[in-house]
Amino acid sequence: MPEYLVCYDYGTGGVWIYLEAASSADIKAAYPDLTVFEALPTWWDAENEKLTRKADFRDPFWQDWLSKFKR
Asked: S-S: 21 plus which of 6, 26, 50, 52, CB 3.0-4.6 Å?
């Protein structure tokens, strides 16, 4: 299943994570408060990738966090 980079922008920063979904539209429908990236931002570098990959969306912490945004 494809992975999509998503961000929750809280105004002074954001929380970034990768999510698996059949399509970006599926993520947008389930989590309308998250921004879904079809392509990586131009400023995205190896360090951002490394830090973001540490956050496994299957982890119970992230599942709980995501549940707050689910529609």
From this structure: 26
